[in-house]
């Protein structure tokens, strides 16, 4: 995409005036790049930590609710709520208060994580249909929270530098690796104690709950005040974005500067519509849908219920999910090396389609293979998922103005969840012919 040079010069002029104020009239290079990347990583971690906590606790849920297929039902409850919330925000993204949206989401993550602990304590660690329904209601709240946070963060970071998007995606993958690591540790520590499965799960959830509070603090008190973040948000405002106003005010940007950016933005208000962005990026959107439709058609339901009994016993599903999460994390950092990052949209889409060959591989491995081969396949599933996700998300926003990048970030988050929802629905097909 190419835009008028005059538009770019006007935007730069507003940013120069914004950052010259308070520095004696000279333009300082905005700092805080490394700190911003660290916070993006932590916020990406927090975005999926509540969900990944539920995902890695499947051994506990299978023990409590053996007749209710929790590995599949929890997913099928979670994603429609996340999808519907994200769709609403994607439609209204140009008018949304991004700061308020993201803070509400992280607070909902904290409340829902705490609620699971309270529910377990109130029922003395028992199972039953009533507790299962309560768990599903909490899962729905977590889904709504993701709809608030994920699209808001992708939209916010899409008009900043690609490294922030990659760091955020890396944090999302690290969330899975981190939860798997903590779950393995807590499971090992309490494995031979009385009621050890429950104790490990509760310690694990307590860590998750505390981390949600950390995310609220980082986004509310630290991220918005970093000079480089203020720089990009001022640029977005100068290009017509209304979503960054609350963050600029929270960062201490004076009303006069925001008004100047707003006036400049009004001159550049013409932007591609959401429909036009959708048409222009249909290849990336299909890529994102297909990546997650395949992944979630296998993880976690198939891995938790359809791989048979093996020497690892109750550790088997936990190990498989852990391997997926660790390799997903590694895959998201391979594109840091520019020569290893796929830039062609056609090649990214082709590689995504080729992953569907994993379906027969998983089917025959579950039927005839050993647990070693299953661990290998699960690892490759994670590696390819992480790698292709970063390639797609960093390729999409290039060449657009701030408001369009924000809209595109929200669209990518929406269709990522479309792919996930499709995947968790297709996951039930593994049960065909098994009497359920």
Automatic annotation (TrEMBL):
<feature type="transmembrane region" description="Helical">
    <location>
        <begin position="315"/>
        <end position="335"/>
    </location>
</feature>
<dbReference type="GO" id="GO:0005337">
    <property type="term" value="F:nucleoside transmembrane transporter activity"/>
</dbReference>
<dbReference type="Pfam" id="PF01733">
    <property type="entry name" value="Nucleoside_tran"/>
</dbReference>
<feature type="transmembrane region" description="Helical">
    <location>
        <begin position="35"/>
        <end position="53"/>
    </location>
</feature>
<feature type="transmembrane region" description="Helical">
    <location>
        <begin position="103"/>
        <end position="123"/>
    </location>
</feature>
<dbReference type="GO" id="GO:0005886">
    <property type="term" value="C:plasma membrane"/>
</dbReference>
<feature type="transmembrane region" description="Helical">
    <location>
        <begin position="284"/>
        <end position="303"/>
    </location>
</feature>
<comment type="similarity">
    <text>Belongs to the SLC29A/ENT transporter (TC 2.A.57) family.</text>
</comment>
<feature type="transmembrane region" description="Helical">
    <location>
        <begin position="408"/>
        <end position="431"/>
    </location>
</feature>
<keyword id="KW-0472">Membrane</keyword>
<feature type="transmembrane region" description="Helical">
    <location>
        <begin position="169"/>
        <end position="190"/>
    </location>
</feature>
<feature type="transmembrane region" description="Helical">
    <location>
        <begin position="73"/>
        <end position="91"/>
    </location>
</feature>
<dbReference type="InterPro" id="IPR036259">
    <property type="entry name" value="MFS_trans_sf"/>
</dbReference>
<feature type="transmembrane region" description="Helical">
    <location>
        <begin position="202"/>
        <end position="224"/>
    </location>
</feature>
<protein>
    <recommendedName>
        <fullName>Equilibrative nucleoside transporter</fullName>
    </recommendedName>
</protein>
<feature type="transmembrane region" description="Helical">
    <location>
        <begin position="372"/>
        <end position="396"/>
    </location>
</feature>
<dbReference type="InterPro" id="IPR002259">
    <property type="entry name" value="Eqnu_transpt"/>
</dbReference>
<keyword id="KW-0813">Transport</keyword>
<feature type="transmembrane region" description="Helical">
    <location>
        <begin position="129"/>
        <end position="149"/>
    </location>
</feature>
<keyword id="KW-1133">Transmembrane helix</keyword>
<keyword id="KW-0812">Transmembrane</keyword>
